[in-house]
Amino acid sequence: MSYRGRFAPSPTGRLHFGSLLTATASYLEARSQGGTWLLRIEDLDTTRIHPETTQAIIRTLALHGFVWDENILHQSRRLALYQQALQALNHRHLTYPCTCSRSTLQQQARTGAHGLIYPGTCRHRQAVPDGRRHAIRIRVPDRDICFTDQVQGLFCQNPALALGDFVLRRADGIFAYQLAVVVDDAAQGITHVVRGADLLDNTPRQYYLQEQLGLAQPQYAHIPQACNAQGQKLSKQTLAVALESNQALASLCRVWNALNQPPLQAGDFSSVREFWDHAIRHWALKRVAGTLRLAQAF
Questions:
Q1: What is the location of CATH 3.40.50.620 in the chain?
Q2: What's the CATH number of domain 80-177, 3.40.50.620, 3.10.129.10, 3.20.20.70, 3.30.200.20?
Q3: What are the phi and psi torsion angles at 135 (to 5°)?
Q4: What DSSP string describes 236-289?
Q5: Which residues of 225-239 are buried (b: 16+ CB within 10 A; e: fewer)?
């Protein structure tokens, strides 16, 4: 199968250096392989989404020279597909309703490396009283799930020990990222996923869902995250500065250099298009360091 990659931002804020780092690595890996590159807007969480930000993200990517090959996919328009996947798992008796509140879990659950570990309080529940708010969780196996990442190498996780049964649909009715991303990657025929190392520990959960739904499993490459001077991942929460489109060429060169490619300067090119032509010819994913975080990269 030919290479099919994607970039999937969530419109909770404008793109910043860390976003551009991931988008650039994803784009270059796809284009250097002669593959297809898609843009997906992960706008499921209506409690955090800013609608005007979606258009700002699309505009910023275009001004930085990104070209996607098919129509943009919006997760908010695909709820029926996620419900179908949830029903398929339910028919196999893999899911159950959970009425545990956040405050209850904070009191009862142990904290692991990836957050609270669900203690299985509702695991044997078959139904809930009519009208009672509840999440839907999936039972996870007590075994290691392993995969070989193209950047990070072998990664193994026992989901039962690391986090416990995880949520597929929240109590407010919003489908969880883990389910939606698996359904969409399969529907779009994604063969390779290049994304930030902050999502590395999500991958075993997604592998498990792919197994249970009978879906193909992409190859993964988790690139190091950009961080600020305090060592925090760049994000809206850490006040990451939004990209300036009039500085596109300079930003792209900074990203390229942060990805451990042969050094470039904005003055080496007369246009963003010229940068991309050069970068696609000289890109090598194997040069990207297999660490979880980059030093301050700007």
A1: 4-76+184-287, 80-177
A2: 3.40.50.620
A3: -90, 170
A4: TTTTPPBPPGGGHHHHHHHHHHHTTPSP--GGG-SSHHHHHHHHHHH--GGGS-
A5: bbbbeeeebbbeeee
Looking up tokens 């990517």, which residue turns up?
Answer: 61
d(CA 92, CA 165): 16
Strand bridging mode 4-7 / 110-112: unpaired
**Taking the CA of residue 115 as centre, how many other CA atoms within 13 Å lie in the half-sphere pointing to its CB?**
10
pLDDT in tens, 88-136: 999 999 999 999 988 888 888 888 877 889 999 999 988 886 778 999 9
Beta bridge partners of 227: 233
How far is Cα 143 from Cα 136, in angstroms, rounded to an integer?
A: 22
d(CA 227, CA 293): 7
Closest CA to 176 of 147, 202, 144: 202
pTM score above 0.90: yes
Look up residue 298 and give its two tokens. 């700007």
Residues 38, 4: contact at Cβ < 8 Å? yes
